Amino acid sequence: MKVSLLFPPTWHPSQPYLSLPSLTGFLHQGGISDVSQRDLGIELLDTILTRGYAAEIYQLLIAKQRDLERTQTGETGAGSREHYAKVTDSLDRFAYLVDRIELAKETLRSEEFYDLDAYRASLFVIDKWLEVVSAVYFPTRLTVVDNQFGNYSIYSSKDLMKVVRDEEQNPFLSLFRNRFLPSIVNSRPDLIGVSITATSQIIPGLTLCRLIKEAAPDLHVTIGGSIFTRLVDNIRRCPSLFDLTDDIVVFEGETALLELVNQLAGKKDYSKVPNLIYRNNGKITVNQPFYSEQVDQLPAPNYDGFPLDLYLSPEPVLPVQFSRGCYYKDCAFCALTLDHQNFRQKDPGRTIEELQWLKQRYGARHFFFTDECFALAPTKRLCRQMIEKHLDVKWTCEMRFEKNLSRELLASMRDAGCLKIVFGLESFNQRIMDFMKKGIKQEWVRRIADDCVDLGIAVHCYVIVGFPTEKEEEALETMNFIVENKKLHRSYGFSCQPCLFDLEKEAPIMSDPGGYGIRRIMRPSAEDLSLGFFYEVQEGMTPDEAERLYQYVYERISEVVCELPFNYAMADGLLYISRAREGAEQAPVAAR
Length: 592
What we know:
about 600 residues, alpha/beta, seven-stranded mixed sheet, 23 helices, globular
């Protein structure tokens, strides 16, 4: 059996995503050796940032300008005066940018990455170049980390069925058709798996599936990823999705994909495939109960075939996993715990072996633990073994502001190579913390943040504005904790990402909205794939008031946070911190 795994745009260009390497490693372990995997996101970005592609875009811009000179109507939107102005402006900037796009790409892959001015200038050039490319498909706007498709909603199956066929506004149709589809289809795999794990991938991913199914209807296409895990009930009512794919794997995909491959080679009894959603005789079937992997039996992620030299960083930062699920999982707002159903912890020794193997095979020295939250006792054992084995790797992870997260454990993490810890602070107001069921206290937050700074571990804080019943002064207390804490926000590598509260599908708060001060929940009828809801509250800020305050909080926190690289990319920030630490260790000690 021949398997082809594809990761569609758009994801952050600094590092690979963990899904395909995890599946590839598991398939190899299960005896499926003919597996190819491609990150089409980074391949596509690499293509767009070339003079060859620029020549094509120039001709498209000229043709679009001529067409709009004759046909433009209206002030905004596709085919409007605004569209014409965008195209004209892009042609004006074309010559300047085209001479710099390849240099910007290569700068980020070289030692110049660590020159902050060169780093920022390169990202600026790339963003402006993508704006030029987008002008052809206006109002679509491409960026390195996201895509906006005008009035199309990614939460509407009706809109999705339209946009995957819209040659005017969907640039991925021509990009995939001309550059990737032949190599994908002509290799004649028995199964093609498409991993859609972020909302930015929904339209590109489904566009890719549509083109594959139309070019080769006999190829079996399956979709996986956390997006659809949260939409199981919705998928039952969206038969149109199965015009683009044969089936969808939800929750964890390793055993499911291996069994699907085996069934394709055998009796094709899809009822035997765990976590599979498929259409059978016009009826959509969901295979339950959902299966969770035994994490200690999973192999190391296999990055063979990934173009690690194409990512926009001077050396790889590889994602790895120490556990699955969240050991706490009581936070009222969080829907992430659904993805893995329950918490499972790998043996620290097995994780050490994985890191040693990845370091040796791919020359990786930096790792990004994707765990939802590091548990304290296993972390202590992991760090002790890292130190004992002189593993010499640098890494980042996520943790909670736990009462028992001691300075001693933090020191051990630092000595084991931890350079940064990501914390879900969410709020610094004690009432809101308690209402969110965070299980943390202000004094723990202050102590742990101070300990991290003292020990040389960088800190990232996620902050939520507008949790139901939150008042303006309570949100400002959280903002002030960041803005007024000079010791914290002046520490090297600090970052903070404010987010506007979103009432998410499957979040614990949805089981008792009235208990959280939510009076009414609404969803546009057209958005049958919605991951969130509109709502009204009984007290505190309204959603509109919260959005306005969020803008203020975002601006104030941005004044004290180093946006590039630390707020832009955890992977980029990790490399910057690592370089700074190396410089500090090598610097001579001044005589006293």
